[in-house]
TrEMBL record:
Coiled coil: none
UniProt-listed Enzyme Commission number(s): 2.5.1.157
This protein's GO CC annotations: cytoplasm
The species this protein was found in: Methanoplanus limicola DSM 2279
Main location per the UniProt record: cytoplasm
UniProt protein name: 16S rRNA aminocarboxypropyltransferase
Alphabetized InterPro entries for the sequence: Tsr3-like, Tsr3_C
Reaction equations catalysed: an N(1)-methylpseudouridine in rRNA + S-adenosyl-L-methionine = N(1)-methyl-N(3)-[(3S)-3-amino-3-carboxypropyl]pseudouridine in rRNA + S-methyl-5'-thioadenosine + H(+)
Compartmental location: Cytoplasm
Length: 164
């Protein structure tokens, strides 16, 4: 069984290179036009969240990425969701930010969350839609494997400190 993937898009990125649009065309993600339509039980990937995603979050029924410019997002609007989670230290492999820490695009963020939650095959499936996609897993293999073995957010933070 695969974990349902959701996105909210603010349409601020170039639709020709938007990773969420490509996943949507492939039928691998459901996009919500309004934030209020996002299920409250989902994990929201939020870099401002106080807690890191960890294998303890496997109980969540879905993952949602916010495909937008973080400079203009009103993060106070995210307070309705109980499962807001930040991703730990990882390095981007997308062409726009290759090699830059914490500069993941939406598909990389979703793949990282899936991998940490034990859904490695689904992570590979969504990344395989991009010529550079599987390179993300190669570049981050060691930390992703360690994060996937952690028990909780605190352990993720300790592991992250070895890389960051």
């Amino acid at each position: 069984m695969t974990m349902p993937l959701f996105a909210w898009r603010d349409n601020s990125c170039d639709p020709r290179v938007c990773s969420v649009k490509k996943l949507q065309r492939a039928g691998l993600i459901r996009v919500f036009p309004e934030m209020k339509k996002i299920p409250k039980s989902t994990i929201i990937l939020d870099p401002t969240a106080e807690q890191a995603i960890s294998p303890a979050d496997r109980i969540a029924p879905s993952i949602t990425v916010l495909d937008c410019s973080w400079e203009v997002l009103n993060t106070s609007a995210l307070s309705e969701w109980k499962r807001r989670r930040a991703l730990p230290f990882l390095v981007a492999a997308n062409p726009g930010h290759f090699g830059r820490p914490f500069m993941l695009n939406s598909v990389e963020a979703l793949a990282a969350a899936l991998y940490i939650l034990g859904e490695k095959e689904q992570a590979e499936t969504i990344l395989a839609k991009f010529g550079w996609g599987l390179r993300f897993l190669e570049v981050n293999k060691e930390p992703l494997d360690e994060y996937a073995q952690a028990k909780n957010s605190s352990e993720i933070i300790k592991i992250q400190s070895c890389y960051y």
